[in-house]
Amino acid sequence: MYLFLTKKYKNADIFLSSLNYQFITEFEFFLRTCEPLDKSNPLTNNGIMKHMERLRKIVTLAFKMEWIHKDPFAQYKLRFKRKEMSFLTADELYKIENIELSKKIVVKARDLFVFYCYTGLAFVDMDNLRSNNLCIGIDGEYWIKTNRQKTDIGVNLPLLPKALAVIEKYKKEPRVYYRQRILPFMSNQRLNTYIKEIAALCGINKAISFHTARHTFATTVTLTNGVPVETVSKMLGHTKLSTTQIYVHVVKQKISEDMKALRQKLNVKKEIKEVVV
Predict the structure, then answer these.
(1) What does the alpha-carbon distance between residue 121 and residue 55 come to, in Å, rounded to a whole number?
(2) How far is CA 262 from CA 216, 255, 266, 267, in A?
(3) Residue 120 to residue 238: CA distance in whole angstroms
(4) Per the domain annotation, does 18 fall within a domain?
(5) CATH number of residue 188's parent domain
(6) Which of 116, 110, 111 is nearest to 129 (CA)?
(7) Which of 49, 64, 79 corresponds to the end of one domain?
(8) In 55-193, where do the E strands start and end?
(9) Is residue 175 part of a domain?
(10) For a disulfide at 117, which of 45, 53, 162, 213, Cβ 3.0-4.6 Å?
């Protein structure tokens, strides 16, 4: 916003009363055409819409507080593009879990990623976890009880054996034990770097980030194995079931692709049998 104001209006600030629909559209055009500060990380459409969404929240608040008499965003529509969700198949997840790695820091990154794949927690929620979030659930097994930072929705998550194994592995590490953490800390940026390296070593040719783990939990770990979408929604801390149903669509698409491949294999076998006969 500062760059836009200084270039367009030769000023670092503007009165709320000066905001109108033209200002909003000009700001969007500026975001789409300006040279990115980081050339390796240019703004995407959804990134631009996030900037517009933040501005709209502030302007809408000003309208509700009657600091302005008209909402300039009344006729403006945010246009997010749905992104293809990247998730690991069962085979790809197995490869990441079992690949031999020489560097301890990379092993640690892999372990954290695997933990996320079997819990579906967002990075910030995992970072907020402390030992008091780990408890015994109604089934006598270990659970994680916390609140999503993004929505403040409660999450009650039974721990699968592979997630619990990661906790056990690091529970005596000094920085984990004395800081009452559940797992060691590593920045999101470093985790993403290491996970991309590990994926390449495994021959996984797809865009992967740490958020892929959350998608993997929703699809490969839970829904594909018959966990009801309502249960998955609760464990992910979604406020709406419709948010989780996006994953159901992905799973159905995967089932369709698998069955298509199976049909082709069966047809080939049938043709071979007919030729032999």
Answers:
(1) 28
(2) 23, 10, 6, 9
(3) 11
(4) yes
(5) 1.10.443.10
(6) 116
(7) 64
(8) 134-136, 142-147, 154-158
(9) yes
(10) 213
Q: How far apart are CA 139 and CA 124, in angstroms?
A: 27
8 A C-beta contact, residue 210 and residue 116:
yes
Segments forming the whole domain that contains residue 13:
2-64
Residue among 76, 79, 70, 80 at smallest CA distance from 25: 76
Q: What is the count of structural domains for the chain?
A: 2
* Cβ neighbours of residue 137 closer than 8 Å, sequence gap 6 or more: 143, 156, 158
Shared domain for 21 and 128, answered yes or no, is no
> Per the confidence metrics, is the pTM higher than 0.85?
no
- 257-273 pLDDT, tens digit each: 778 888 888 886 656 55
Phi, psi of 130 (to 5 degrees): -130, 170
Q: Are residues 129 and 18 in the same domain?
A: no
247 and 173 within one domain: yes
Is 70 exceeded by the pLDDT of residue 277? no
Note the pLDDT tens digit of each residue in 64-94: 999 998 899 988 988 877 666 788 989 999 9
**What is the per-residue pLDDT across 238-258, written as a single tens digit (0 to 9) for each?**
877 777 777 777 777 677 777
Residues 7 and 127 grouped into a single domain: no
Q: Are residues 94 and 152 in the same domain?
A: yes
Asked if 115 and 166 count as a contact pair (C-beta separation under 8 A), the reply is: yes
